[in-house]
TrEMBL record:
EC annotation from Swiss-Prot or TrEMBL: 3.2.1.8
Organism whose genome encodes this protein: Paenibacillus glycanilyticus
Protein name: Beta-xylanase
Tree of life domain: Bacteria
Keyword line: Carbohydrate metabolism, Glycosidase, Hydrolase, Polysaccharide degradation, Xylan degradation
Catalyzed chemical reaction(s): Endohydrolysis of (1->4)-beta-D-xylosidic linkages in xylans
PROSITE patterns for this protein: GH10_1, GH10_2
Active site feature: 238
Segments forming domain GH10: 1-328
Pathway(s) the chain acts in: Glycan degradation; xylan degradation
Protein family: Belongs to the glycosyl hydrolase 10 (cellulase F) family.
Pfam families: Glyco_hydro_10 (PF00331)
């Protein structure tokens, strides 16, 4: 009988999966067998739960919360403040003009109060602020309506509002390209500036959207070391390992080749070995999906391309990658 991922890792960290209303049905057996945590892939984002100023729509988010509760899984909240998947109304007034700082912060507060308040004691951990660090070298924060209209301290305020709404929830800053040395250092500078101001932040989310040849194991190790040195908890929040090299833009594969699957398995193996080494810092590893029948990487970033980034195949059978992350026991 197959070992359950969450049992293999019970002395290390939680094993999570991002889910949506389709996959909680189509992947139900797999999810309940192997994972002890879930994140809503889209259904707790601003545009999903708060499409207009007066309207909150929690049906989908509630179904995911119910799925987690019914199956004894933890629930991560994703995400409160982001430049994407946030409706335009947030940033403008009735005649379409940009809102002032006070109005935007008041809207942010009421969103956070309502959403965090609704899942108080249910969502144990929130990605409060997502992706505010700029990728481009030499530039500090990402241009966004949040930044342009409210100024840099919208970040600290988001954490303060979230903490007030649920003082027991763990509050995370979450970002991608997190192992790139320059971006990593900018992320650390941000969280340290928050810590210096006594802002309630408890963790750093490493998204982990990786591929076959990057980031290198050395870069991942260095990033974990440096993030852990902030004293904050770490979680890998959105792990997937594309079967393509970073510069491989082929669109003709309808099945992954044996060679790609082999290389992916080696990579999963070495990466989870590294995660185990840092079990004092890493409290959860969440995949951005569960099995290869559904991944957001289909068509992204290369249109017309299928991907196979998980440790279970499209039929929910374990891949060589599953073997490599469980065979150490
Ligand atoms: C992605 C979802 O997986 C897609 O379904 C959606 O179309 C776009 O967002 N970083 C994040 C996640 O923090 O919220 C993103 O999720 C993937 C990148």
């Amino acid at each position: 009988k197959l070992l359950a991922l969450r049992s293999v890792y019970k002395d290390y960290f939680d094993i999570g999966a991002a889910v949506n209303l389709t996959t909680i049905e189509s992947q139900k057996e797999l999810l309940t067998a192997h994972y002890n945590s879930v994140t809503a892939e889209n259904d707790m984002k601003f545009e999903s739960v708060h499409p207009s100023e007066e309207a909150y729509t929690f049906e989908a988010a509630d179904k995911i919360a119910d799925f987690a509760a019914a199956n004894g899984m933890k629930l991560r909240g994703h995400t409160l403040v982001w430049h994407n998947q946030t409706p335009d109304w947030v940033f403008q007034n009735a005649n379409g003009a940009p809102v002032d700082r006070e109005t935007l912060l008041a809207r942010m507060k009421s969103h956070i109060d309502t959403v965090v308040g609704r899942y108080k004691g249910i969502v144990y951990c929130w990605d409060v602020v997502n992706e505010v660090i700029e990728d481009k070298s030499g530039v500090w924060l990402r241009e966004s309506k949040w930044l342009n209209l409210a100024g840099e301290d919208f970040i600290a305020k988001a954490f303060e509002y979230a903490h007030a709404a649920d003082p027991k929830a763990l509050l995370f800053y979450n970002d991608y390209n997190e192992c790139n040395p320059e971006k990593r250092d900018k992320i650390i500078r941000l969280v340290q500036s928050l810590q210096a101001k006594q802002v309630p932040i408890h963790g750093i989310g490493l998204q982990g959207h990786w591929n076959l040849n990057g980031p290198s194991l050395a870069e991942i190790r260095e990033a974990i070391e440096r993030y852990a040195a902030t004293g904050l908890k770490l979680q890998v929040t959105e792990l997937d390992i594309s079967v393509f090299d970073h510069d491989d833009k082929r669109t003709d594969l309808t099945e992954p080749t044996a060679d790609l699957l082999e290389r992916q398995a080696e990579r999963y193996g070495e990466i989870f070995e590294l995660f185990r080494e840092y079990k004092e810092a890493i409290t959860a590893v969440t995949f951005w999906g569960a099995a290869d029948d559904y991944t957001w990487l289909d068509n992204f970033p290369v249109r017309g391309r299928k991907n196979w980034p998980f440790v279970f195949d499209a039929k929910h059978e374990p891949k060589a990658s599953f073997g490599k992350i469980t065979d150490w026991q």
